[in-house]
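chain below, 398 aa
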Amino acid sequence: MNVLILGREEDCRDYLDYAQRRGFTVRFFDPPRLTADRADWRRTVAEGVDLTGIDDVISFHDSYQIQLELLRGELGLPTRDIDTLLCLADKTRFKAHPAVRDHITRHIELDPSAKAPAALAAVSAALSFPVVVKPSNGFYSAGVVKAATPEEFPKAFLQTKRVCTVLREGAGQSGMLAEEYLDGNEYAVDGMVSDGRIIPLQIHRKLPPLVGPLFHEVAYLTEPFDAELGRDFTAQLEHVIPGVGLDNSPFHAEFRFDGQGRLRILELAPRLCGGGTTTYQQLRICTGIDAYDLLHRLGREPLAPEPLHHRVALEYDAPIERSGFLKNTARAVEVCHKNDVTTVHLHREDGQFVLAPPLNFETVLTAYFARDTREEAEALLDVLMTDCTIETETEKSS
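prediction:
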């Protein structure tokens, strides 16, 4: 199989390993930014790449989903609805959609060009504190900041504003949202939509609990999706996914319970999670199902994946406490191996400069572990939080 990936090679190492084991040929393409004129999109994207001999086009990148469908259309491959993808790529559009607006928390849009006092006045008039400020099209929890009180809001607003500026440089647009904070546990569900059938495959519990002020996701404790225990998630997915028009697509949906125990949807991404790696590695550990294989088969045949086993997976995304130059990353990798890691990816090397939350857009080390029980996975996380840390220094070592 000849596969074209929209994105950077360094962000797709997991899929590259997968492809090499199966004899796939992989090429990469960094697609151009889309212009304001939608009529030019197809020509702009297609003219920049040679599609000769390509069997499939995929992308794990939020910002490239529209370009992905345009190229798939050029090849006569199954495609998803462009307007649906535009809705899912922007939290403002998503939250305003009729199929979604009854399942979310109260929120308002903020003007990124506004000053903090004006933004605070708008938030205070419409919402109750605590609130969360976030980019409309962010990822990896970059720029997501909680303000517990009006006094904390200006700092949160400025932190998010900085991230929106970076996002506009890359994507051409990025708005800001403020929404009321939901005081409950946060979960995510990975799955597939195949010919209208919604197939939840695994559920992630985010640990430690995300209570702010920042929301970097340190760990996913993942189990196969249980239809009985997950019926509230299923009911919401079965309302939202057909409502927005998503079909023949992977999905990564994020949820949080409010203080009254009601489930609210935060976002719905039409892609595999974690650059593809999280969905693939966690699903392989938990169920034995091959997520990359499902991705290539979507739209070509009906999918009906069946778990081969039931285990618990832990994904650990080593946190960065402060921005700086990396050091001693080999020690963190060694800790992972001492704890029987299944797969570990070190994405950055010693000496490279990295940003700490809430300004970070990239991970440094991600490790995947298999355990038999939830209790074993939670105990492992305690060990990793103590022993497997990523160090930085303010000056680069010579």
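Residues 31 and 45 are 6 Å apart (CA to CA). The mean pLDDT is 92.
thats it, cya
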